[in-house]
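Q: Here's a chain of 91 amino acids. Please give me its 3D structure as tokens.
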Amino acid sequence: MDLYTKEGRPFHQDGDDLFSRSGTHAARLRGKKAYHPDGQYVGTLVGNRLVYRTTDSASLGPVFATRLRAGTASADAVGAAVLGDEPPIPD
């Protein structure tokens, strides 16, 4: 499933795993919250957008080993007017 950051940068969802356009394993979903491989909060999924919310930033997720995936050629989307900031997802 293709998703976007708040500003419209694309990334791909494969199960609970989120991959950047370059194929970097950027985060893992736990419910609607996404966590970096080191367990730090990355963002909250709102519809098809991942948004960094300071109110959720104190939560920690599980540490996990990353996996590799081929990159994709995806175009950016228009930014969304949702509450929160751009998450720290690599391109």
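Q: Can you summarize the key feature?
A: The two ends are 17 Å apart (CA to CA).
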